[in-house]
Amino acid sequence: MAPAGRPHTAGVIAALRAVGLTVGDAIAPDTTATQKWAVVYGGGVGLLTGTMHDERSDASPVIQVTSVGTTAEQSEWVADTVRRTLLARPITLAVANRRVLFVSVEASQPTRRDDDVHPPLYYGVGLYKVATTSTT
Amino acid sequence: MIDVQGLTALISDLAAAPEKLRVGVRATVEKAALNIKDDAKEIVTAATPKGYARAYPSSITYDTQQTATGGTSAEIGPDKDKRQGALGNLIEFGSANNAPIPHLGPALEHEIPNLEFWLSEVAGEAL
Questions:
Q1: Contact by Cβ (8 Å): B92, B101
Q2: How far is A113 from chain B (nearest CA, A)?
Q3: Cβ neighbours of residue A47 under 8 Å, at least 6 residues apart?
Q4: How does pLDDT run along chain A (136 residues), one tens digit per residue?
Q5: For strand B72-78 and strand A36-41, is the pairing parallel, antiparallel, or unpaired?
Q6: CB-based contact (8 Å) between B106 and chain A?
Q7: What is the pTM of this model?
Q8: Which end of chain B has less neighbouring CB within 10 Å, N or C?
Q9: Contact between A114 and B95 using a beta-carbon 8 Å cutoff
Q10: How many CB atoms lie within 10 A of CB B117?
Q11: Number of residue pairs across A and B with CB atoms under 8 Å?
């Protein structure tokens, strides 16, 4: 059976919440009690590869984490915390019914100011590739 | 005494291989760039049905160049001089409150297996 994307997204969200971050799932979370947060955008499974036994056993979805703050410093603090958490060695990220092979930074965007919202917010983007394989 | 035949033809084939490879790689990379551009346009058009970025897909272009070492490089993405071309970053990665619409990254990823396949074919034919 081809792997699903959602367990990967759920794993990333759970890992970030476990270190105390306020995290939204494809939408900004309730931010009344915080000035910094992350939004996780998942979807898809990336290129499927595998073995002769199961050529679609390995997935490598790219998951975007947007790190937001009311100041540039807060946005960067969130981005640093996200990076530290997802790239931790040994790997701490858990994906249901999958073994995480590695997590890597696929791309990143520097901190920017979003003037379309008032007051302005600062945000940076990290794209993480989460490579997993079947545990069965 | 050992009699070797066909050596001249082999030498000739080997001598022609680098040029065959250059031409084949260039054509393959150009085709891949075109596929990525078309796929990115298709993805972003499908993801913005309300048409708020109607002109943006047409700003996505590609350009190929020959490198100093005889290779070929391709650059695919929105042309900022075209209408809505400057929205590329905002659309691909989103903003503080706007969700991203990844289209260039996924289009590249879709094309990788094709590119790998055709490059190996070109290499095989050149030799």
A1: yes
A2: 9
A3: A60, B109, B112, B113
A4: 677 889 999 999 999 999 999 999 999 998 878 899 999 999 776 777 777 677 667 899 999 999 999 999 999 999 999 999 999 999 999 999 899 999 999 999 999 999 988 899 999 999 999 999 988 7
A5: unpaired
A6: yes
A7: 0.82
A8: N
A9: yes
A10: 11
A11: 46
Q: Does B113 touch chain A (CB under 8 A)?
A: yes
Nearest to A23 by CA among A73, A67, A89, A72: A67
List chain B residues with CB under 8 Å of A117. Answer: 96-97
Complex ipTM above 0.85? no
* CA–CA distances in Å: residue A131 to residues A5, A49, A69: 11, 10, 29
The DSSP letter of residue A35 is S
Q: How far apart are CA A94 and CA A111, in angstroms?
A: 28
Q: Give, in order, the Cα–Cα distances in Å from B113 to each of A69, B50, B106, B116, B119.
A: 38, 32, 12, 5, 10
How many Å lie between the alpha carbon of B70 and the closest alpha carbon of chain A? 28
The answer for residues whose C-beta is within 8 angstroms of residue A53's C-beta and 6 or more apart is none
- State whether B97 and A116 contact (CB < 8 Å): yes
| Of A66, A67, A47, nearest in space to A57 by CA | A47
Q: Chain A closest CA to B78's CA: distance in Å? A: 17
